[in-house]
């Protein structure tokens, strides 16, 4: 029963959702939608709880770098505390958010630019025809998308437009169509209970 | 009043067709009545060669299954299938295998796959529990952890197979510098290019699923692959028909039909 | 040790420094290279321009702090264009990190003050609402229910005059989705654009752009801003050149630096391969 | 941004960049701080924008007591943390997956149909012919249940080679675009450092 009930729930709810939309009755399942959103919203603390328990364990066992786990826990506590106590979108929380989260998040994201630089120099090789085609097309697009490309030669922006409009559109469309079939089949398998990995057993 | 909303009839038929094909095909494959041929992929053939080289050099294979965000990421399942094959080969030739891992939930899955592989080769004694290593949840910490392993242990083979994000670049460069044979695979289009230019062998996009099905021969995966292939063939046929009709300016009838 | 051997062994921190300088020098001393405007950006501008004063458009900023430099100005430029035109704007986000609407709020408040517009009358920010796709569907059925009756500041929607005209997504004329992966645009089309028949336009970080270009070609997207270049072109169109425009010089220099890296490294690689081949032949 | 904010953000930015020289405690401090604060943001926003109004307005003010059921359903997820009771969390999960896959099957075909009908290129120009050929050959490249024993294997091999070449051109475009995206992020930070904080450029 531990598996049958969830499988039945998935099947019934999924079929209702499919039929509601295809028969034009999507308004009729508004209650179900509301249940979905509300129940997912109330599960929002899941990630934080496992994060907290993981880092508490690190601190308790004095694993390497446990001091930083304390920093993480304190930050989580402070930001949550101030955010909940402050009214929605309140000035204190906004201050914390725009002083720390926005600039630091952006900086961490920008580290990748440096890695690209070193990888471009040390690892991107035209080791075979595939890689050669890829690198050439990539460099044309980079020049075509930067204003300097047009200054050097109008070829770059024309070629970039062509690459994006013709080969890229066709190939990415084919890939998107493939992904479309893939996600549809995955959804069908979940509805039918063929895919059960989320129930804690593998598909086998 | 029509049962199906105008403009959604064909879409509804697609859903019905998929439901039926899943109900029919997967049991057929499971019972062994219909086992399709799956084409070989050069990157998969390269695994055996890579394991051979690692054995010869006496250096380890480092396998990293990506940094999936969710447990139900299909790429991770494909990666587990491939890992099982790699682990069997490593067990057979007594080659060192190090599996890196960034999610606490992923660790037991990887461990189980590797252990089973060693048992199936009758080498449970040479299985070492520390061959699957949980490095860090945090992505940049994980990436530097893998770099550390690649350098310290002098990896002979660096396999990066699974759901990769921006860290793909860091590992591919690190592996390139240790001189390891590199095999990369991911379905994320924005990361494939880095693998193509920095790896010796590379699986592009959906090839990772095919590789997983090819190696594991697991009926659900094979069946899924078969249904998807039929789906793509039907789409290709429709597009071809559309292009032919367009040559005679008659494609509108087909478009109207599809939009029914 | 030859030149190319040395090249291969260079400390990566020198490379980091070169990348940094290639971006920093043009920021200090801009060259002012001309920027031409692509058809995708023109489509985006024209779609908002075609709205009438008083119409409502939906703007969904779906990105986190890390992507603000690349796509943040798309949101503010679109907001500015709408305000200038007298188009009212409804902002919300469903993406799980929930940062986009919060980041947009500050920037939009500044523009709103500058142009003498009033929050609640000319624009409303509902903030982050959990529930992903299903919340997008709910917006089509009932915006108020999807928002559980409150905006980002906790105001009741009853107290906001603009919201009296917005009960369902179909009361809006256009949806503009600004995001970093193509995924957000596909969802916007599937769950809001197609069911309501409204115009969909999008802005995308460059990393996911190649995946969504097919939707612009097919006409399913009426406009598309492609990465920081798209943001710069759009800043020019709304006549408020900002960080993206002045950044284009640095972008040029950095691209050239990376290309030089790739070329140098590949020359080294080819020479090395040739030397090895020659040695093997000589043995 | 006020001066205090600028200085905190500026020092934080430099601290994170110090990682490029060598991994160090200051970098780690800011990185862990960021992860903690990021998780908090989701909780704070969900609380103010959804949880509190649902309880205070929908249930208490409007008397819609049926909403207590989905709240309980969501709370069942936390049984994962109770040893031996984790299987109960499959119930909300099953409900979510049912709705999620149902709507996927219902709404996903929309954009897809538009893509399909937009691919009927009239073969009257070189570009249109290239487009059609590449679309078809890429679709066929990603077909896997074929092999040397299949009918038409030779033809398939040729078509898939064409497909692979097209795929490499497109991946090149993705490569260039991804490089651009990363450089844009760096550019944003350099502008912050030099223009907003140190004011040595404008």
Walk me through the topology.
The complex is a heterotetramer of chains A (204), B (260), C (283) and D (202).
Chain A: H1 4-22, H2 30-41, H3 45-60, H4 66-85, H5 91-122, H6 129-145, H7 147-152, H8 154-192
Helix pairs in contact in A: 3-4, 6-8
Chain B: H1 9-30, H2 42-57, E1 61-66, H3 74-92, E2 97-101, H4 106-120, E3 132-134, H5 139-153, E4 157-163, H6 167-178, E5 181-186, H7 189-198, E6 201-204, H8 207-216, H9 219-247, H10 251-258
Helix pairs in contact in B: 1-9, 3-4, 3-8, 5-6, 6-7, 8-9, 9-10
Chain C: H1 3-8, H2 12-28, H3 39-49, E1 56-62, H4 68-85, E2 88-93, H5 100-114, E3 123-128, H6 132-141, H7 143-146, E4 174-179, H8 183-196, E5 199-204, H9 209-217, E6 223-226, H10 227-237, H11 243-282
Parallel strand pairs in C: 1-2, 1-4, 2-3, 4-5, 5-6
Helix pairs in contact in C: 2-11, 3-10, 4-5, 4-10, 6-8, 10-11
Task: Give the rounded overall mean pLDDT of chain B.
Answer: 91
Which spans of chain B of ≥5 residues are poorly predicted at pLDDT below 50? none
Order of helices and strands of chain C: HHHEHEHEHHEHEHEHH
Largest sheet of chain B: 6 strands, parallel
Radius of gyration of chain B: 22 Å
Largest sheet of chain C: 6 strands, parallel
CATH fold category name of the largest domain in chain B: Rossmann fold
First and last CA, distance of chain C: 21 Å
How do the strands of the widest beta sheet of chain B line up side by side? 3-2-1-4-5-6
- Residue-averaged pLDDT of chain C: 93
Give the termini distance of chain B in whole angstroms: 15 Å
Topology as H/E string of chain B?
HHEHEHEHEHEHEHHH
């Amino acid at each position: 029963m531990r598996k049958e009930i969830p499988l039945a729930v998935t099947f019934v709810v999924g079929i209702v959702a499919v039929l509601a939309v295809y028969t034009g009755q999507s308004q009729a399942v508004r209650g179900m939608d509301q249940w979905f959103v509300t129940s997912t919203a109330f599960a929002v603390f899941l990630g934080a709880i496992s994060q907290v328990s993981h880092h508490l364990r690190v601190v308790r066992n004095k694993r390497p770098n446990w001091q930083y786990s304390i920093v993480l826990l304190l930050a989580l506590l402070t930001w949550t505390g101030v955010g909940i106590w402050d009214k929605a979108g309140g000035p204190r929380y906004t201050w914390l958010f725009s002083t720390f989260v926005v600039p630091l998040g952006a900086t961490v994201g920008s580290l990748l630019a440096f890695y690209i630089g070193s990888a471009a120099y040390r690892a991107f090789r035209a080791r075979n025809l595939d890689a050669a085609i890829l690198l050439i097309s990539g460099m044309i697009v980079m020049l075509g998308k930067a204003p300097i490309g047009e200054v050097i030669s109008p070829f770059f922006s024309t070629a970039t437009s062509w690459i994006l409009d013709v080969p890229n559109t066709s190939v990415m469309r084919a890939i998107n169509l493939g992904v479309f079939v893939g996600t549809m089949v995955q959804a069908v398998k979940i509805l039918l209970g063929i895919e059960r990995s989320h129930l804690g057993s593998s598909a086998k | 009043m029509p049962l199906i909303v105008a403009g959604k009839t064909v879409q509804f038929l697609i859903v019905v067709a998929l439901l039926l094909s899943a109900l029919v095909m997967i049991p057929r494959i499971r019972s062994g009545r219909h086992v399709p041929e799956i084409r070989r992929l050069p990157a998969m053939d390269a695994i055996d060669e890579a394991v051979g080289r690692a054995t010869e050099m006496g250096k380890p294979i480092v396998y990293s299954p990506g940094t999936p965000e969710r447990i139900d990421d299909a790429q991770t399942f494909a990666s587990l299938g491939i890992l099982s094959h790699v682990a069997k080969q490593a067990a057979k030739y007594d080659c060192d295998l190090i599996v890196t891992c960034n999610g606490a939930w992923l660790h037991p899955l990887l461990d189980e796959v590797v252990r089973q592989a060693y048992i199936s080769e009758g080498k449970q004694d040479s299985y070492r529990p520390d061959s699957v290593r949980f490095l860090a949840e945090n992505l940049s910490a994980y990436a530097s952890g893998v770099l550390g392993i690649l350098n310290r242990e002098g990896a002979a083979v660096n396999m990066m197979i699974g759901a990769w994000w921006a860290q793909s670049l860091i590992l591919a460069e690190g592996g390139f510098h240790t001189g390891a044979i590199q095999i990369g695979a991911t379905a994320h289009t924005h990361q494939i290019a880095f693998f193509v230019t920095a790896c010796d062998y590379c699986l592009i996009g959906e090839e990772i699923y095919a590789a997983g099905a090819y190696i594991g021969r697991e009926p659900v995966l094979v069946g899924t692959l078969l249904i998807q292939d039929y789906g793509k063939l039907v789409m290709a046929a429709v597009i071809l028909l559309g292009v032919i009709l367009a040559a005679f300016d008659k494609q509108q009838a087909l478009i109207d039909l599809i939009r029914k | 040790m030859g030149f190319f051997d040395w090249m291969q062994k260079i400390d990566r921190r020198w490379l980091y420094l070169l990348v940094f300088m290639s971006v920093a020098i043009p920021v200090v001393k801009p060259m002012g290279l001309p920027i031409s405007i692509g058809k995708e950006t023109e489509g985006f501008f024209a779609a908002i321009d075609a709205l009438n004063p008083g119409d409502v458009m939906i703007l969904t900023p779906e990105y986190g702090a890390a992507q603000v430099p690349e796509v943040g100005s798309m949101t503010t430029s679109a907001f500015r264009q709408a305000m200038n035109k007298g188009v009212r704007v409804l902002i919300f986000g469903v993406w799980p990190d929930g940062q986009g609407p919060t980041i947009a709020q500050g920037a939009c408040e500044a523009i709103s003050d500058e142009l003498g517009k009033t929050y609640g009358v000319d624009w409303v920010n509902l903030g982050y609402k959990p529930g992903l796709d299903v919340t997008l569907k709910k917006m089509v059925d009932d915006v108020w229910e999807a928002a559980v009756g409150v905006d980002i500041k906790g105001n009741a929607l009853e107290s906001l005059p603009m919201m009296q005209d917005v009960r369902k997504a179909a009361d809006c004329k256009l949806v503009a989705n600004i995001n970093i992966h193509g995924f957000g645009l596909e969802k916007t089309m599937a769950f809001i654009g197609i069911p309501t028949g409204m115009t969909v336009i999008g802005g995308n970080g460059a990393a996911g752009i190649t995946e969504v270009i097919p939707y612009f070609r097919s006409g399913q997207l009426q406009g598309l801003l492609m990465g920081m270049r798209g943001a710069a072109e759009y800043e020019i169109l709304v006549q408020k050149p900002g960080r993206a425009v002045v950044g284009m010089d640095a972008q040029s220099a950095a691209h050239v630096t990376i290309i030089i890296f790739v070329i140098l490294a590949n020359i080294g690689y080819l020479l090395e391969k040739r030397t090895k081949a020659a040695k093997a032949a000589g043995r | 941004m006020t001066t205090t904010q600028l200085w905190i953000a500026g020092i934080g930015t430099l601290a994170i960049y110090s990682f490029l020289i060598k991994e160090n405690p200051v970098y780690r401090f800011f990185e862990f701080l960021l992860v903690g604060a990021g998780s908090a943001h989701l909780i704070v926003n969900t609380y103010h924008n959804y949880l509190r109004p649902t309880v205070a307005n929908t249930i208490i003010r409007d008397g819609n007591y049926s909403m207590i059921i989905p709240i309980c359903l969501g709370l069942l997820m936390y049984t994962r943390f109770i040893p031996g009771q984790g299987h109960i969390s499959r119930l909300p999960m099953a409900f979510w997956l049912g709705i999620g896959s149902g709507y996927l099957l219902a709404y996903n075909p929309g954009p897809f149909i538009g893509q399909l009908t937009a691919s009927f290129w009239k073969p009257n120009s070189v570009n249109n012919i290239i487009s059609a050929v590449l679309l078809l050959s890429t679709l066929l490249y990603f077909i896997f249940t074929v092999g040397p024993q299949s009918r038409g294997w030779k033809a398939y091999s040729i078509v898939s080679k064409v497909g692979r070449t097209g795929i490499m051109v497109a991946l090149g475009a993705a490569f260039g675009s991804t490089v651009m995206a990363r450089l844009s992020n760096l550019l944003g930070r350099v502008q912050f450092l030099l223009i907003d904080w140190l004011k040595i450029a404008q």
